[in-house]
Design goal:
Layout (H helix, E strand, L loop, with lengths): L15 H28 L4 H31 L11 H14 L3 H8 L3 H9 L21 H13 L5 H10 L6 H9 L8 H4 L6 E2 L5 E10 L20 E9 L4 E8 L5 H15 L5 E4 L3 H4 L1 H10 L2 E4 L9 H13 L10 H18 L10 H5 L26 H10 L3 E2 L4 E2 L6 H8 L11 H12 L4 H8 L3 H9 L6 H11 L3 H5 L14 H14 L3 H18 L2 H4 L7
Parallel strand pairs: 1-8, 2-5, 5-6
Antiparallel strand pairs: 2-3, 3-4, 7-8
C-alpha cells in the first residue's frame, strides 16, 4: 500500500445514508429469518443439550428484546421534565411499591427504574396506610355491572315521569330495595338502549338447533406464528405460512356445551384427508358422532373427500353464514380466545411435542375451569357431562357494608342464569337449553350453608362463653373492636387468638385469659350457665340495661310485681320467721 493511501477520499454514492438504513432493516429481517430456521432445527435435534441450548438462546433473545423495548420507552419519557410527566394513578402507585418489595429496591433504585424522584417514593411509603376515597394509594376495586332490566326500569321511570332527576330516581329505587348511585343512574340515562332485533332478522329461514351435547359441532383451521408476527422487510413482506415460521391448528368444538372436543397441530396447511383423520379421532374420543358439522367454505371442507366422508359417517355438513351473528363467529371467537390467552402469552415452541403439551394444558383448563357467560357462569364440562355447576355454591360476601336487600349480588345472578339459560337463536343453528322452574332453580342455586363446628378446644370455650353471655358474633366483635369474620375465625379455624385480641376477649366475656385458654377452670358466675332458657333471659336483661333509666325502673317494677304475684303464700307471709 502506498504511504499516502489513507489520505485518498472514498467514492461513496450520494444517497448512501438512506441505503445503509434500509440495509440495516433488511439485515435484521434476514437474521430473524435465519434464526427461526436454525432454532427450529435445534429444537427437534436428537441431542437433549442442543435442544436445551436452543431454548436458552431463545429466552435470552426475548429478554434482550424486552429490555430494548423498555429502554426506548424510558428514553422518550426521560426527555420530558419531571414536573410535566403524567402522574401515576393510585392503583399504579401501590403496584410500584409492591414491585419494590418483590425486587428489594432502595428508594433511589425505585425512582431510577420508574422515572420518579426518591422524595416521591418516600412520600408514598409514609402515606401507605391512608384510607378513604382520596388516598394516594388504593387497591383495585371490582366493577359491578347491573343487568339490562335495571337500565330498562331507570329509563322507563324517566320517560313516564320526566320531572324526576337522577338523585330522585336513585332514592325511589333505593326504597324498593334496588341500591343505585346517582352517577350510575346518570350513566344509564346517557347510554342509548340496545336495539332489539326484528322478527325478520331474529328468525332465520334455516335453523339448526343444538338440543344436546354432541348434536352440533364446529370445525375450523387457523394459524399462529412461532414469533410475534409474519412481517418481513422483503417481498411479499410476510414469512411463509408453514413450519418453522408458524403452526396450523385444527379445532373441533361442541356448540351446546362450548366444549373443545378435539385439537391437533400441523406443520403446514392440512389436506382434506388429514382433516378427516382428525375429525375421526375426535369422534372416537367423544364416543358419538355429531348430527351436524358447521364449517366455513375452505378448500378442505369443500373437497369431495371430506364431503364423501361426512355422508358415510351420517354427519350433515353445513356451511356457516358469513358475517352473521352466531354462525361461524362462535368458533372464530373460540380461536381468538385461544390465541389471546395461550399462544400470545408464551414462546410458541418449535418442536411439536412441546406445542401439543401447551395446547393440551390450555384446552384442559378451558373445558374444566373457564366459566362462560352464555352458560350462566358454568364451565363446558359441567354442561357437557351434566354436573352441578360450581357457581351455585353458598355465596361469600366480603364487603361488610353491602346492602342486604340488593338485587345485584344474589338475585341478580339468579335472573342472569335464568335469562341466559333460555333458547339462543342464530343464523345457522339454534342453541336450546331447557329451562327449569323457579323452585328447582332456587334449590340448585342457593343451598343453605352448613354450620361449621369449632376445630379446637379454644374455639369451643370461646363459643360457649359467648353464648352464655347472650352475645352474637357481631356484638362480641364490636366489644373487642374487630369484625364478625375475625370472631368466626377464632371460633372455627384458629387454634387461639393473638395476645392483644385475647386480652380484649377475656375482658368482654368477664373471664381471665387463663380461663379462656383453658389453663384454669372457668369459675361459675352470673350469666354463665348451660340452660338455654337462662341464657335467653340473660340476653333480654342485657338489652334492658341499654334502655334509659326511666324505662329500666319500669321494667324492674313490672318484674317485681310479677314475681310477688306468682310466689307461694308462705313466701309472702310477713310473720314468717326468717331464721
Amino acid at each position: 500500500m502506498p504511504p499516502n493511501a489513507r489520505d485518498l477520499p472514498l467514492s461513496l454514492p450520494k444517497s448512501w445514508p438512506r441505503r445503509v438504513r434500509s440495509a440495516v432493516i433488511h439485515v435484521i429481517s434476514l437474521a430473524h429469518f435465519s434464526l427461526i430456521a436454525t432454532r427450529s432445527w435445534a429444537a427437534n435435534n436428537w441431542n437433549a443439550r442442543v435442544r436445551l441450548k436452543s431454548k436458552n438462546e431463545r429466552l435470552r433473545q426475548e429478554l434482550a428484546l424486552l429490555h430494548e423495548e423498555m429502554r426506548l420507552k424510558d428514553a422518550r419519557m426521560q426527555r420530558i421534565p419531571a414536573q410535566r410527566r403524567p402522574h401515576y394513578i393510585p392503583i399504579e402507585r401501590l403496584e410500584i411499591l409492591e414491585l419494590r418489595a418483590a425486587r428489594g429496591w432502595s428508594q433511589a433504585q425505585t425512582a431510577e427504574r420508574l422515572l420518579v424522584t426518591p422524595l416521591t417514593v418516600s412520600s408514598w411509603m409514609s402515606r401507605l396506610d391512608e384510607g378513604g376515597p382520596r388516598a394516594i394509594l388504593q387497591m383495585r376495586q371490582p366493577v359491578n355491572k347491573f343487568p339490562d332490566f335495571v337500565g330498562y326500569i331507570v329509563r322507563r321511570l324517566k320517560v313516564l315521569s320526566p320531572s324526576l332527576g337522577k338523585a330522585k330516581i336513585a332514592q325511589i329505587l333505593c326504597r324498593a330495595g334496588l341500591h343505585l348511585g346517582t352517577t350510575t343512574v346518570r350513566r344509564i340515562l346517557r347510554d342509548a338502549p340496545r336495539k332489539t332485533p326484528t322478527e325478520a332478522s331474529a328468525v332465520p329461514t334455516r335453523i339448526v338447533a343444538a338440543r344436546r351435547p354432541n348434536h352440533v359441532w364446529h370445525l375450523d383451521l387457523t394459524t399462529f406464528p412461532t414469533s410475534l408476527g409474519f412481517w418481513t422487510a422483503w417481498l411479499p413482506f410476510a414469512l411463509p405460512q408453514h413450519w418453522p415460521f408458524c403452526w396450523w391448528l385444527a379445532v373441533a368444538f361442541d356448540h351446546y356445551s362450548r366444549r373443545v372436543v378435539g385439537v391437533r397441530s400441523f406443520p403446514q396447511q392440512p389436506s382434506s384427508k388429514e382433516v378427516c383423520i382428525f375429525v375421526r379421532r375426535a369422534v372416537r374420543e367423544a364416543g358419538v358422532a355429531p348430527r351436524h358439522l358447521v364449517t366455513d367454505r375452505g378448500e378442505q371442507f369443500r373437497a369431495r373427500t371430506f364431503r364423501r366422508w361426512c355422508r358415510r359417517e351420517g354427519i350433515a355438513q353445513r356451511f356457516g353464514a358469513v358475517g352473521k351473528h352466531g354462525s361461524i363467529a362462535v368458533i372464530e371467537r373460540l380461536i381468538r380466545t385461544l390465541k389471546e390467552e395461550c399462544t400470545r402469552r408464551l414462546l410458541v415452541p418449535y418442536d411439536r411435542r412441546s406445542l401439543r403439551r401447551e395446547i393440551a394444558l390450555y384446552v384442559s383448563w378451558y373445558n374444566s375451569h373457564r366459566p362462560h357467560t352464555l352458560l350462566g357462569s358454568r364451565t363446558p364440562n359441567e354442561v357437557y357431562y351434566g354436573r352441578p355447576p360450581a357457581c351455585t355454591a353458598p355465596r361469600f360476601e366480603p364487603r361488610h357494608s353491602w346492602p342486604r336487600g340488593s338485587i345485584t349480588p344474589r338475585t341478580g345472578l339468579l335472573h342472569a342464569i335464568k335469562s341466559r339459560s333460555q333458547v339462543h337463536t342464530c343464523m345457522v343453528y339454534h342453541d336450546s337449553v331447557p329451562s327449569r322452574g323457579d323452585s328447582a332453580m332456587d334449590r340448585i342455586l342457593f343451598p343453605m350453608p352448613k354450620k361449621i363446628r369449632p376445630a379446637s378446644a379454644f374455639g369451643e370455650r370461646l363459643t360457649a362463653l359467648r353464648k352464655a353471655r347472650g352475645l352474637t358474633q357481631v356484638q362480641l366483635a364490636e366489644k373487642i373492636g374487630s369484625t364478625q369474620r375475625a370472631v368466626s375465625r377464632y371460633e372455627t379455624v384458629a387454634d387461639r387468638a393473638p395476645a392483644p385480641v385475647l386480652a380484649r376477649l377475656a375482658q368482654a366475656l368477664g373471664v381471665s385469659t387463663d380461663e379462656l385458654l383453658g389453663v384454669k377452670r372457668i369459675r361459675t358466675a352470673a350469666g354463665l350457665t348451660s340452660d338455654p332458657e337462662a341464657r335467653r333471659l340473660w340476653k333480654k336483661f342485657q338489652q334492658v340495661m341499654a334502655l334509659p333509666e326511666k324505662d329500666r325502673r319500669a321494667v324492674i317494677r313490672l318484674v317485681n310485681s310479677l314475681v310477688t304475684a306468682k310466689a307461694p303464700a308462705r313466701d309472702r307471709d310477713p310473720r314468717r320467721a326468717t331464721g
